[in-house]
Specification:
six-stranded parallel sheet; elongated; alpha/beta; DNA-binding; four-stranded parallel sheet; homodimer
DNA sequence: GTGAAAGCGCTAACAT
DNA sequence: ATGTTAGCGCTTTCAC
């Protein structure tokens, strides 16, 4: 059996209260007894029981991490990296991460994850877009909530976000400075704030450099910005416009799809047409030519979120602070000066 | 404040014991009081506290999942998929997964993950190769342990494994049946049982089809079978042998490296040389030509491990059962008949 | 500076 | 069929 506080007390010839005080290294404890107790703890290899402690402290030492199932299953390791980041930072803060997925069509009749109902988390990190009914339900609970890469109810909840506007500008500027003027934008799910911001960045750069926006250069797919939709978007785009020399894709997944379309149709990348993505989730030499992109600091989003969470838990506060992380332009081989 | 069992008891006009019995739907409870209690539970939205329950039941409802940090950080989503699989299956079994990483150079002076010390897990899943000192330390504990994709101390511990020998045979046979005879094997970290088995499969097929093994066709790198080593192995291989027509790479990562070498040196794939990998972690159209490979059922490894774990926990047993999962040959465009 | 004791929310053996 | 009660291992007043 595992040693308990009683065993330690017995071995050190003190009361369990004293052991507890030593464990929390309370001031008013004589060095002498402190040593005795520490010694016993060492010898018995004593560690306080998580459950017992949680019961009296009314906390759990766990942080929930929620994703929709389709985000979790995505082939690009975007949310996985955010999770990894928060996992590492949790480690630093003596916290554990309880990951769970919810249905992407979660509705008000669905049950919340058990760790919420059973008070087994001290805070919740929500990564990516989640259904509104979910947000509505958890809002009744009293633990801190942090959104990552998505920020609904911004006045109410904290969020760790990426500067998508800046990214859109960087990508577009890179193309403009490389001599391109007929620059298309392809995207999907335009209601998603991140995507919308990327498009806004694109528009900003056009304005800044005095280029005229042209609706026929902007191709938005209805739903999810994935490969297939990237292929479709490129198809529609090139059917309408023969003279495009560059594409800014709202993410890497669509960019890969668009590249496939170009390859299938004899459009050389980057000679006939440059393309730049967003996210940096395609491992660099896995595709040809290597995709230029805007790097999103995924791990860092996770660590920042968990840092913020640890801080909120430790100080028992909830706020709506936002952390905005900068992005980087990564120039590889899919974009070229003309 | 969250409702407790007392609140329910008060509301339903029964004792807390009765509430507990209803929660566990014990037989000898009249339908009448059952309804009363259930009603109160519903109204108060009562859920038993995880900590309190854990304290008396001496369990946690959590399963630990351990990976070395470098495995977790690998770009190929191999272990991530195993984790996802176990996460989904945990969900089915009302369990939570506590993921943590350990140093890949864990030694006997390192501390074990807190969830072990604090008895916050009911069982442990270990994915991939972990340092021996770690195994040694956890062996003192009394919870069930399952290894995934690695099976040290096989007489003692359960394991979920993949049929690497069969995979090696399938890959090699595919090449032989496509008319190849000068078939090379490239690998790394040959002490790893999985890699060794893949090589054994290669040898088996040679024997089965009456081909002579040739040491100069087998190129083993000292350490980790990653892209860089794949590149190096290919370089050495082609420097020694000009007439190779096919390569079986011990995994996809090395295959991608080897493909890069071939591209850099004007060796056309698959016209000059076919290549097949192992794992199926390169998303299918991300690389050209699409890589033929042996698919390893990664998610399934995770679900199987968790199924086994849930079973062991439920029935309070530990055994050394093994689950061997079959692999599939996936023919894409990097292999060709000659 | 240290100990006694109450209590966190629950389960389960024992009473009734 | 239901209630009483003794813990589970810990923290935290409050005495001494």
């Amino acid at each position: 059996m595992n040693p308990t506080i009683k065993d330690v007390a017995k071995m050190a010839n003190v009361s369990i209260a004293t052991v507890s005080l030593v464990v929390h290294n309370h001031k008013r404890i004589s060095q002498e007894t402190k040593d005795k107790v520490l010694n016993a703890i060492e010898q018995l290899n004593y560690h306080p029981s998580h459950s017992a402690r949680g019961l009296v402290r009314r906390n759990s030492g766990n942080v929930g991490f929620v994703l929709t199932d389709d985000h979790f299953l995505r082939t690009e390791p975007f949310y996985t990296h955010i999770f990894i980041g928060s996992e590492f930072e949790a480690h630093e803060n003596e916290l554990y991460v309880l990951l769970t997925t919810i249905n992407s069509d979660f509705n008000s009749s669905n049950k919340l994850p058990r760790f919420i109902l059973e008070r087994n988390i001290d805070g919740l990190i929500i990564a990516g877009k989640v259904p509104f009914p979910f947000i509505e339900q958890i809002s009744k609970y009293n633990f801190p909530i942090i959104f990552v890469d998505y920020s609904p109810c911004a006045k109410k909840y904290s969020g760790v976000l990426v500067d998508n506007i800046q990214g859109g500008e960087l990508a577009t500027e890179h193309l403009i400075k490389s001599g391109h003027e007929r620059i298309a934008f392809i995207g999907g799910d335009i209601e998603h704030p991140s995507i919308k911001d990327r498009l806004n960045g694109y528009k900003n750069s056009f304005e800044k450099f005095g280029l005229k926006l042209n609706d026929s250069l902007i191709e938005i797919e209805e739903d999810y910005p994935g490969r297939t939709n990237g292929y479709n978007a490129a198809e529609r785009l090139f059917t309408k416009n023969k003279d495009i020399t560059a594409i800014f894709s709202c993410n890497d997944a669509m960019a890969v799809g668009a590249m496939q379309y170009m390859k299938d149709n004899g459009i050389k990348i980057p000679d006939d047409c440059s393309i730049i993505g967003f996210d940096d989730v395609v491992s660099d030499n896995a595709i040809e030519p290597a995709l230029s992109t805007i790097r999103v600091p995924k791990m860092e989003m996770g660590t920042e979120a968990m840092k913020l969470m640890a801080h909120m838990i430790k100080n028992n506060l909830k706020d709506n602070r936002k952390v905005l992380l900068p992005v980087d332009l990564i120039i590889r081989e899919s974009t070229k000066r003309i």
